[in-house]
Amino acid sequence: MEKLQKNAPSGVECSFIPTENDLELINRYTVKALEADEVFCFNLTLCDNEIDRDFERFSVEALTALAPMFEGRTGIADHSMKTENQHSRIFRTWIEESEIRKTSTGENYTTLKARAYIPITPKSEELIEQIKSGIKKETSISCTVSSQLCSVCKAEIRKGGCKHRKGEIYDGRMCHTVLSKPTDAYEFSFVAVPAQPEAGVTKSFTVPEGMALDKIEKAAAGCEAVTLSIEAFSQLTAKIHSLQELSKDAEKYRKALEARVSRLGAMAVPELSSDELEHICAKLPTDSLTALEKAFSANAAKRFPLNPQLGTFTHENKTDNKEFKI
Ligand SMILES: [Zn+2]
After folding, report:
1. Distance 256 CA to ligand 1 centre (A)
2. Ligand 1 centre from 324 Cα, in Å?
């Protein structure tokens, strides 16, 4: 079964000193009973029931089933199962359900939380400091589920799926995959945070309902993560589709312009081969191509006048003819 790796919604939280109850639970996993000053504890959010960046979400039933599966699981570096990469162990998990916050699908926002410990040793000092200072903050989990359903038609994705596409809107609702019936939980891992002045601090921006796209763009500038409401997401998807259509038209216009300039160029500058002209045209910005089209047209008109010898039938001629009317 394919192992899923999911970024945790809010990663590590504070509360580092173990309680009596913590120690009791921790010592179920240790050979020698550890004292309060020998362990460092931290809380983390493992996963939630909101649609994630892959357009997937865990069902609440899946979160509840995953809770006991994560107890005793280790925290590792970069999802690598090598023993030397194990740095911490989850000793307690629980479900937290918000009665105020709703998910984009209208459920109560529910998270699977965990409390983990790290034995304090010279080797673990650096990691503990990184967690305390917020440098190690984002986490991701790895697990397997036996059911992945399309949110629109409830078809099982593994059995060939359906015609619906994740991330697209159907009847005002975003299609996503509902992950349920977990079969195993493996570990959690700290996700690398790139070195930057604000390392460890993840800024995020939640788009309020009804906010215009240009304002979303401005407000989100500089944020590392943006949470869109379904309404804002639909607006954005519609905008992208209209831009894609516009871009097809623009491409057609551009190709036609390049062809015209190449053709006119061949007349104006016969020394250049048509291949060379096409190559030059393809590299020029559209404004320059338009200017060239004008210049080449004028030049071509001079070199190849349309009516070189015959007098044109002008308005004056017409007036003159009146004199011959009977
Ligand atoms: Zn479907």
Report:
1. 41
2. 81
Taking the centre of ligand 1 as the mean of its atom positions, its distance from the CA of residue 112, in whole angstroms, is 27
Tell me the C-alpha distance between 123 and 68, whole Å: 29
Residues 6+ away with beta carbon under 8 Å from 140: 5, 6, 7, 8, 79, 188, 189, 191
Q: How far apart are CA 241 and CA 234, in angstroms?
A: 11
Question: CA angle, 12 as apex, 57 and 91 as ends, to 5°?
Answer: 90
pLDDT at position 95? 95
Model confidence at 315: pLDDT above 80: no
Q: Which residues pair with 142 in a beta bridge?
A: 5, 187
Dump pLDDT digits (tens) for 148-172.
999 999 999 888 779 999 999 999 8
CA angle 11, 77, 51 (to 5 degrees): 40
How many other C-beta atoms lie within 10 A of the C-beta of residue 265? 23
Q: Among candidates 113, 185, 188, 107, which has minimal Cα distance to 145?
A: 185
Distances in whole angstroms, Cα of residue 76 to Cα of each of 130, 149, 202, 306, 317: 15, 30, 21, 79, 93
Amino acid type, 84: E
Q: What is the pLDDT of residues 99-145, one digit of tens each?
A: 899 999 999 999 999 999 999 999 999 989 988 887 787 888 888 99
Distance, CA of 143 to CA of 58 (rounded, Å): 11
Per-residue pLDDT tens for 67-86?
999 999 998 876 566 666 78
How remote is the CA of residue 174 from the centroid of ligand 1, in Å? 11
What gap in Å lies between CA 17 and CA 281, rounded to an integer?
A: 68
